[in-house]
User: Fold these one by one.
Assistant:
Number 1:
Amino acid sequence: MNGFPPPADARIGILLVDDHAVVREGYRRLIERHPPLHIVAEAGSGEEAYRLYADLAPDLVVMDITLPGVSGIQALQRIVARDRDARVLVFTMHRDATFVEKALESGALGYITKSSPPELLVQAIRAVHARRQTLSPDVQAELASLRRAGGSGRNALASLSAREFEILRMLIAARSREDIAESLHLSLKTVLNIHYQIKAKLGVSTDIELMHAARQFKLLD
């Protein structure tokens, strides 16, 4: 990167990161209907995303944060550590403010949810390419609500890593630890350790207390 703006008709090369090939295909078609946006590569995991970024140096990354193995947040952190000028847009189903804060703290320039209208994805890509922070309206509302809440509960929740928060959401959705391990391509031992760490950070000792805490944090109806 030479620091000069690219010509107006220059292609904007995008690395698309999502663990579902069918989902990637749909977003590829949507994005490439809007030249000069162009998908240069696709990745299905955090490890692959980092490797492709290092190999190809794309202009922009559009990535989910729920990925097998290395989480999207961890991959984002590695990419930004390698290239502090990296432009990364998080595009995910998660609108929880804790995920948003973790992503922005890690260097993402944008965060929009998959429930957003298709045109918002295209607009967000262009905004992030221009180095403008962009958040989808539902994400902005979640952030505002969390910040109004304040208090020690918010601090406890914010102390969770992105992976811990992801597993917490799966636990309170009644997913078994074996199922979580399989879904995230982690060992059962790793999931058990993270489950313990979550309870320790939230100051609870049992799963019943964990569910009560989730209700207090408004993660559960």
Number 2:
Amino acid sequence: MSDPQADDKVAAYRAEIRAVGRTQRLAGFGLVLLGAVLVWAATRAGGLAEVVQMAGYASLAAGWALMLTAIFLRTRYHRRRMAELDGGAS
């Protein structure tokens, strides 16, 4: 059987790590969705098609950059926390 106290600690850590970079992840996801819609809408934008398409690609790029930033922040946070548990080793 598993230790309930250990399970609670794991659940707390998961909640803690989910909070790291949350704003960047959500903003990135929103920008990726917006970019996809804009790129799709560019086919129906008539004379503004090129502008709408470029805005869509810019939104996609910014969204993915934010998502990668969130991954970096989360990884760095996790490494720091694991180093704390190891007593500062590594």
Number 3:
Amino acid sequence: MACCEPLRRSRPRAGLAIGTVALARELRPDLVLMDVQMPRLDGVSATRQVVADRLADVLVLTTFDLDEYVFGALRAGACGFLLKETEARDLLVAVRTVAGGEGLIAPSVTRRLIAEFAAKPVREPSADPAVLDVLTRREREVLSCLGEGLSNAEIAGRLDMAEATVKTHVSRLPGKLELRSRVQAAVLAQELGV
């Protein structure tokens, strides 16, 4: 697993997020560990650039437990969100989890996300169901499982597939659906009731 975090420390603080995006372009890491608050270009905007350009998956790590950062990072395409109070061993597990194609959100934040989601009124899907026409039957099944929040291992068990095959399907879904991440694919599945 490639990561540009150690190289970033040798760079000057000014323009850190811009430097992170440039390093991601140069090094093509599997995962970028992103802070939310940085000078010049904030971490949410940097996450959006890294994800939009398909440079790497992003795990956001921040001191700030604010909904605007959580929602902003997830909307920008981050695959995970942790607080800096996370123990080192849990951070390593999170890095491996996100690098393995899973999503991860700090437990202290998860309850608020669920409450926020549940509080929103049911509305008509904002996405056109026709976007799913590009998917095979199996890809729709995988998308449905993503919408339920299942991990790759759980999807493999449910659909009686090899986990490597699930990872392949999951990695192709965002491209076929013109999305930036697994998280956005799961949200689309929820919106469309897949």
